[in-house]
Amino acid sequence: MFSRRRPLVSVVVPVYDVAAYLPACLDSILAQRHRALDVVVVDDGSTDESGAIADRYAERDDRVRVLHVANGGLGAARNVGVAEARGDYLTFADSDDTIPPDAYARLVAAVRKGDADFAVGNILRLEGDLGAEREIRLPWMDGMHAPYVGSIEERPELLGDVFAWNKLFRREFWDAARLTWPERIRYEDQPATTEAYLRAERVAVLDDIVYHWRIRGDGSAITEQRATVADLRDRWRTKQMALDSTRALGSPALQEVFRTQVLPGDMWRYFLLVPGATDEWWALLVAMVQGLWGDDALVRSGLGPAHRLTGWLVTHDRRADAALVMSHLASLGGRPIARADGRLDVPGLDTTSIDPAALALRPHEA
Would you state the pLDDT for residue 132? Predict the structure, then answer.
């Protein structure tokens, strides 16, 4: 029988130089229908007014506490917040995003009803100027979040939902599983969430929208970061950490889905950068693809046909050919690459020395 006491939900909010966005974030948290909140704001060495804004919220609402710490990055700030959190449940929010008013109530109810270790819900993306945002549905997230309660072994594709902030954890589970966020590294969400899925006996999945994820600006800064060696090195390391967890804790069937359908999910974004890559970045990309996928070079993956082919070319260190494919794809402006006899046809590409499997189209692609 459930306790009549409304459980306390701790919300950890890392903050760094988001003065323009922080009020909307905190307002959305404090307006939750689930009122029993412990909001732990971690001011991660902000250089703008973010810390002062958080302090003013704490003065007005005793559910808010603010920790001012030296800058340590997102993972470290989350870990600081977790250490100070007092709730029965634990969740996270990035300080430029917002949370729908019923989100925490729905997540708590799902964990309790399903006797789950944590619950995960669907998201919307916010694009556009502050106060005039467009709400964008994400079909790949919609497809992942059909209602379900059970082991990740039965829904391994859910490992593709790597986000920290659309999940609510029982604090007992978080501590027992010894979960933590990697520090001083980008893409820290995937290793931690993968570990959580694998260690949970039961996960509750909701199709409800529980989070609004803001995309700031035009995204060019993200693209510029991906083109750096430091970004690519972090991406390789966090993918390897997640892969190691699946090998240690998952069944062979789950490992196969993770390696072919989940782990490659964002590699196309890196392949797009091949034509303008530096020698050092290209060498690291080759080593990364060879290290994570070996000789099959993403040919069996869930990537699109042009990116499966590029994966094969990267594995075999065929830089000029990979650049040719990606440049041709870019020139088409979103149109598909021509297909001939059930295979990709790229002008200027000598296909006689390429594995036919790397060129092959699947029935729905022909």
Answer: 80
Position 33 confidence tier, pLDDT thresholds 50, 70, 90: very high
> Does residue 228 sit within a domain?
no
> What does the DSSP assignment read for 166-201?
TEEEEHHHHHHTT-----SSS-THHHHHHHHHHH-S
pLDDT at residue number 217: 67
Give a three-class secondary structure readout of 137-151: CCHHHHCCCCCEEEC
The rounded distance, in Å, linking the Cα atoms of 33 and 104 is 8
Same domain, 202 and 273: no
**Confidence class of residue 131 from pLDDT cuts 50, 70 and 90?**
confident
With 0.85 as the threshold, say if the pTM is over it.
Answer: yes
Tokens 């440049």 belong to residue: 327
Q: Which helix H or strand E contains 44, and what residues bound it? A: strand 37-44
Structural domain range at position 290: 264-359
Give the Cβ contact number of residue 129 at 10 Å.
Answer: 8
CATH code at 154? 3.90.550.10
Same domain, 211 and 70: yes
Domain count, the chain: 2
